[in-house]
Write a structure and sequence with these properties.
Elements lengths: L3 H11 L1 H13 L8 H14 L3 E4 L3 E7 L7 E7 L26 H17 L7 E7 L8 H7 L10 E12 L3 E3 L2 E4 L1 E10 L3 E2 L9 H19 L6 E9 L6 E2 L2 E10 L2 H21 L3 E10 L2 E3 L1 H14 L5 E3 L9 H7 L2 E9 L20 H15 L2
Parallel strand pairs: 3-4, 3-5, 5-16, 6-15
Antiparallel strand pairs: 1-2, 2-4, 6-16, 7-14, 8-12, 8-13, 9-11, 10-12
């Protein structure tokens, strides 16, 4: 082994078993957003063992620094998220979540494991690559305002300031042994909508003496969909989904209050905020025209994830050099959201996908489901490619 790629691939294979053990520990001990205290302590312990200096920010975030040769020549960041979801795990596995109602159902345990593995490889080979790699272990990806925004506000992109940032995400619809990349917009923005409709309730047999909040809310749900179908450019993907309709408790009482909750997604930031104004105006006019009052709040969430075109091309080139032929694909645009978008608003970023599906083993469940899991051979690919990009790209 006389070149860096061979050495990284060898170490990724050598450390695979250790990395799987780390993933099992993290998976069995999940923590919700902004509560990743044990996870943070575990990451700090691992970095200490590797001799990698670090600092803590955003309460549970951990930022490590590895300096190679000529450390000022290039500075890149590698990011992983650490939080879990409020889901009860249904997998029958030895490393099943030990915490009722909390599960790593989005693969953040895998992301953290891959970054720790990449850190181990880069630290061991630091005399063979140039530049500095900043390791970002981030809390709170699953919940507004997004841990990325907090860490940016606390200076994670300063001292030293990375010129580029990379992040990976497990992809349960992509076969094991593959990765996928895309330039430009790759994920949508995500905003939360909260609406309360209020009116005079009363007996269901005398609706003329009430303000029928159920009927008004029903009209509003239908009306809101026309904002997308009649105002958004059909070539620009956008989604508005009302996901919660709460009102009434019995069969013969028209309630005085109905609550709606939903999400709005877009790939165009200009249209995104125009749509907010349309939602507010439409909802207010429909509800008031039908005799009720309205309270509306749009919780502005994550921006779109935009992969810098130049960085994407560089990253894909290095990925194709590292991976076997035919194992680098073009990922699809997704209406899901990721707070990695906050980083890409500040510096060039590239967010890519790691294949974890194995149909033969029955590993096909999607993220955010109680049966989500991965083929763990993906970890070798994940940590090796991340180390390779950290040592070369940017």
């Amino acid at each position: 082994m006389n070149n860096l790629k061979d050495k990284i691939q060898h170490l990724a294979h050598t450390y695979q078993a250790d990395a799987v053990a780390i993933r099992h520990h993290l998976h069995a001990h999940p923590e919700l957003s902004y509560q990743e205290f044990e996870t943070s302590a575990f990451v700090q312990q691992q970095l200490t063992k590797l001799g990698i200096p670090f600092q803590v920010m955003a309460t549970t975030g951990v930022v490590g620094l590895i300096k190679g040769k000529s450390p000022d020549k290039r500075i890149v960041a590698l990011r992983a998220d650490m939080d879990a979801l409020p889901i009860q795990e249904e997998n029958d596995i030895s490393y099943k979540s030990t915490r009722p109602g909390v599960m790593h159902a989005c693969g953040h345990d895998v992301h953290t494991t891959c970054l720790l593995g990449a850190a181990r490889i880069l630290q061991e080979l630091k005399d063979e690559w140039e530049g500095t790699v900043k390791l970002i272990f981030q809390p709170g990806e699953e919940r507004n305002p997004g841990g990325a925004s907090i860490m940016i506000n606390e200076g994670v992109l300063q001292n030293p300031a990375p010129q580029a940032i990379f992040g990976l995400h497990v992809h349960p619809q992509l076969e094991i042994g593959k990765v996928s990349f895309r330039g430009g917009q790759v994920m949508a923005s995500a905003d939360e909508i909260y609406i309360t409709i209020k009116g005079k309730g009363g007996h269901a047999a005398a609706p003329h003496l009430t303000v029928d909040t159920i009927l008004i809310a029903s009209h509003l749900v239908v009306s809101l969909q026309q904002i997308i179908s009649r105002n958004c450019n059909p070539l620009s993907p956008s989604v508005l989904s009302i996901c919660s309709f709460q009102g009434g408790h019995t069969t013969n009482v028209i309630p005085s209050e109905v609550k709606l909750m939903g999400t709005f997604r877009a790939l165009d930031e200009e249209w995104r905020f125009k749509a907010h104004d349309l939602i507010r105006r439409n909802a207010t006019e429909v509800v008031r025209a039908m005799g009720a009052e309205i309270e509306l709040h749009i919780d502005v969430g994550y921006p779109t994830v935009y992969n810098d075109e130049k960085l994407y091309k560089v990253a894909r080139k290095f990925a194709e050099e590292y991976m076997p032929q035919g194992k680098v694909e073009t990922t699809e645009v997704r209406m899901g959201a990721e707070d990695f978008g906050y980083y890409t608003q500040q510096i060039p970023g590239c967010f890519y996908r790691l294949g974890v599906m194995n149909i033969d083993k029955g590993i096909t469940s999607g993220v955010h489901t109680p049966t989500f899991n991965i083929d763990e051979s993906a970890i070798e690919t994940g940590m090796g490619l991340m180390a390779w990009l950290g040592a070369n790209a940017g």
